[in-house]
């Protein structure tokens, strides 16, 4: 099984002042769990603090099983409400979304 223990998700880099630079791309900040998803013998989701989150998100783990072995994907697991806003409290019965970090 491919392990993700020696790897860590990319961390946020904060800036003191806002800036605008055509060389930079900006993206929405989703409110959820930062995870590494790996595809080995079995799919595995690991939080940035090292917790195994695979059982928390069986739909995502099931989807990862369809990928070839050997992938490690850095991303944010979140739930979007009916307005498309991330909802860390997971209320409303909506399924999880895995946004991949670039």
Short description:
The protein has one helix and four strands; from the N terminus they run ββαββ. The chain has one helix at residues 58-64, and strands spanning 33-39, 43-47, 71-79, 96-100.
Distance between the termini: 24 Å
- Quick one: CATH superfamily of the domain at 33-100? DNA ligase/mRNA capping enzyme
The major beta sheet can be summarized as:
4 strands, antiparallel
State mean pLDDT (0 to 100 scale).
79
Structural class: mainly beta
Describe the structure.
- The chain starts with 32 loop residues before the first strand and ends with a strand.
- It has a domain at 33-100: D-amino Acid Aminotransferase, Chain A, domain 1, CATH 3.30.470.30.
- It is mostly beta strands and 102 residues long.
- It is 7% helix and 25% strand.
What are the salient characteristics of this protein?
102 residues, mainly beta, 4-stranded antiparallel beta sheet, 4 strands, 25% strand
Topology at a glance:
Layout: E1 33-39, E2 43-47, H1 58-64, E3 71-79, E4 96-100
Antiparallel strand pairs: 1-2, 1-3, 3-4
């Amino acid at each position: 099984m491919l392990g993700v223990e020696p790897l860590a998700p990319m961390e946020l880099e904060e800036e003191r002042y806002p800036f605008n630079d055509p060389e930079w791309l900006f993206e929405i900040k989703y409110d959820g769990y930062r995870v590494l998803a790996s595809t080995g013998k079995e799919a595995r989701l690991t939080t940035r603090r090292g917790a195994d989150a695979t059982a928390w998100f069986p739909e995502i783990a099931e989807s990862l099983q369809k990928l070839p072995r050997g992938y490690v994907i850095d991303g944010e697991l979140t739930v979007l409400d009916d307005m498309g806003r991330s909802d860390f409290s997971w209320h409303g019965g909506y399924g999880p979304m895995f946004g991949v970090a670039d």
